[in-house]
Amino acid sequence: MSPKRLTAEEKGKRVANTEDETTCRRIRAPSFDNSALIQQNLRTLIGRVTSAKYQPISRLLEELPRKWTLKGRASGSDLGHERFQFRFDREDDIHSVLSNRPYHFNGWMVILQRWEPVISQTFPSQIPFWIDIKGLPLHFWHEKIIYKLGLELGTLDDYTVSETAIRMRISLNGLEPITKNTIVDFDTGEEARLTLEYEGIQYMCYICNRLTHFAKECPWNPVRATSPSRAPENRQTTESDSRQYSSLREPRYQPYPTHKRQERTLQEGDYHQRLDRHGRPFGERISQSRGSARPLRNKIAPAPYEPTRRGAHGKSNSPITRDYASEAGRYGAKNPSDYRVSTKPSGPQQMWREKEKPPPPSREDDQSVDPITPAPEDQYQPFEHSSLGRNLAISDFPQVARIPTTEE
After folding, report:
1. Does residue 361 contact residue 381 with C-beta atoms inside 8 Å?
2. Which keywords describe this protein according to UniProt (predicted)?
């Protein structure tokens, strides 16, 4: 008996749909004449963002028209599905905008194309680039070579050939990988490796050469695809597996076992058996235990608290017992509860007082002078201190000559 043949659904080989058929409903569109609508949308440009994650369309509709020099008016709107539109009043504005392509926003390329009455999920997709061809031998700088390259890469729009450079403008599919290197075979059996340098290109993936994502987000990255942390089967772990895995993991910090520390301290002869590089024993180990000696005590640092030692008859024999009531009067506290240990050394109290003025100079006049009405020259003169520096004479600072007025 031949074995049963399994279907594609049973094998799990059925192509997965991007949308759930149970939630997506199909509706038949009616037929009508839409020629008027086609004429109405002829002055419309359709655009698409290459990286919707980094290119919000709401901001793009505001900033992209600032790069244009328009004579008329242009209005933009969001069409959804990473697409947008701009409607123009003048035909020459459309030609001016299309001739200055390509455009970019937030470091990513923007696809901008004239509207066409087509129904396609990949429209718009064409983006033009000026390409510098590097590596082509000089005796093959011919228009036939350029036509051949343009036919293989995309649609040739324009080209320039000079004595110093060869360039071509090609419209490429911006949703597909772009070609940056190519090999040209000649009839003689020789080949030339060409490098294509795109002018005005922005961010792109260097792994798959697409304009839609970074290299770290590339789905064709072999390192990213084979990474165990990103594998779906590794992410779906049960609670029992995670508990079992956590028990097998070793903790980062493993303290030294207590029983081994005790055994180490009990082995007293280990240290005495150790020798230095000269063959001499180390001797006895100095104890590192905290001594029982009391710390220093002075007027600045108060004495630390120590428990009261009881004697044989139950009385306190501690010499550190403090009488807070007696010390309160010393430090000026009102009651023992207000006692605070002062951190400043006590010293003599100083009081400010006014400095005494020096006595006036003694008079050497006769007794005949009336003491009630002294002479003007004998009046009291204020005490003058000696100058710390030299006295400057008037000759050091001569008076400025007076300038006569017009009346004089």
Report:
1. yes
2. Metal-binding, Zinc, Zinc-finger
**Residue at a domain's end among 83, 108, 124:** 124
Give the model confidence (pLDDT) of 345-402 as tens digits.
555 667 777 777 777 766 555 555 455 555 555 455 555 555 555 555 555 566 667 7
Neighbours of 111 (CB within 10 A): 23
Q: How many domains does the chain have?
A: 2
Give the residue from 67, 98, 124 where a domain finishes: 124
> Which helix (H) or strand (E) is 196 found in, with range?
strand 191-198
Q: Are 204 and 211 in contact (CB under 8 A)?
A: yes
Are residues 140 and 120 part of one domain? Answer: no
Buried b (16+ CB within 10 A) or exposed e, 129-139: bbbebeebeee
Q: Enter the tokens of residue 379.
A: 């009046």
Of residues 126, 48, 116, the one with CA closest to residue 81: 48
Over residues 188-234, the pLDDT tens digits come to 999 999 999 999 999 999 999 999 999 999 988 877 655 554 544 44
Exposed/middle/buried for residue 128 (C-beta within 10 Å: 0-12, 13-18, 19+): buried
Print the SS3 string covering 349-395.
CCCCCCCCCCCCCCCCCCCCCCCCCCCHHHCCCCCCCCCCCCCCCHH
Residue 287 lies in a domain: no
Question: Counting beta carbons within 10 angstroms of the beta carbon of residue 231, is it exposed (0 to 12), middle (13 to 18) or buried (19 or more)?
Answer: exposed
Looking at the domain assignment, is residue 317 inside a domain? no
Long-range contact set of residues 284-291: C-beta below 8 Å, sequence gap at least 24: none
DSSP per residue, 234-281: HH---HHHHHHHHHHSPPS--PPPHHHHHHHHH-THHHHT-B-TTS-B
Could you list the residue range(s) of the whole structural domain that residue 131 is in?
126-223
> Is residue 25 domain-resident?
no
